[in-house]
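Translate structure to sequence.
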């Protein structure tokens, strides 16, 4: 009953018009109740990835460490995923980007960014699908392969002002604000940071296929569905010593 009321409230605010923060909070609440109703599983029916992974369901053969270095107008994140098992682990850490000449790149600094209240969420993972959003093609990052008894360390940095970059959140907000462009140019202050990375345990039937000869250590995985279903989310939260400027999404009416 509570889930139905939240869904009705979202539909009402979408029709009547509301701020982006109101829409986002209602959507987050509904997703939390849906998450609870699945008994803290790592996915919902249909393979929709959830933001959190229950600690009891985390792979005991995985270790995760993460550090944050704050500099003037810059945040540097370093994380390590350790694979202490006997089979490969995949890390959803490479997001595709197109160069002006059409070449595809997979820069380590490209991450998903969203602001929730004053918390900056930085993600390298398969994003959760917001409630009510229908997807034809779901963005799935490319993968780094971590062999048995090996570890993988990556560092990336974010320069202020940090612009929001979450294609699913942007699509949901655009759907809630027809006739408007959703742009990331509303300055806000972030006081906390949560970094999350998605990983999955491989299977003998999985194929790791290099994306190109120029990037032999970046892979697409076949079949694509099971790794998404198996995604586990490893996270670390930090309190920022100095707030940092974030350019959050806002809806701008078209003229």
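Result:
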């Amino acid at each position: 009953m509570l889930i139905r009321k939240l869904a009705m409230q979202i539909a009402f605010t979408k029709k009547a018009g509301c701020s982006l923060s109101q829409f986002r909070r209602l959507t987050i609440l509904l997703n939390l109740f849906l998450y609870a109703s699945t008994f803290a599983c790592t996915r919902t029916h249909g393979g929709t990835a959830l933001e959190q992974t229950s600690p009891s369901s985390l792979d005991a053969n995985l270790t995760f460490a993460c550090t944050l270095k704050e500099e003037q107008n810059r945040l540097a994140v370093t994380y390590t995923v350790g694979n202490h098992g006997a089979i490969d682990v995949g890390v959803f850490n490479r997001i595709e980007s197109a160069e002006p000449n059409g070449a595809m790149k997979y820069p380590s600094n490209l991450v998903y960014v969203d602001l929730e209240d004053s918390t900056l969420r930085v993600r390298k993972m398969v994003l959760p699908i917001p409630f009510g959003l229908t997807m034809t093609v779901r963005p799935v990052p490319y993968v780094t392969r971590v062999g048995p008894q090996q570890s993988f360390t990556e560092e990336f940095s974010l320069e202020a002002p940090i612009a929001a970059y979450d294609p699913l959140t942007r699509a949901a907000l655009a759907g809630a604000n027809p006739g408007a462009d959703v742009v990331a140019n509303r300055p806000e202050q972030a006081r906390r940071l949560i970094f999350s990375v998605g990983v999955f345990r491989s299977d003998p039937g999985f194929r790791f296929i290099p994306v190109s000869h120029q990037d032999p250590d970046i892979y697409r995985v076949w079949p694509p569905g099971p790794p998404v279903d198996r995604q586990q989310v490893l996270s670390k939260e930090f309190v920022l010593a100095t707030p940092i400027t974030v350019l959050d999404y806002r809806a701008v009416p078209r003229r």
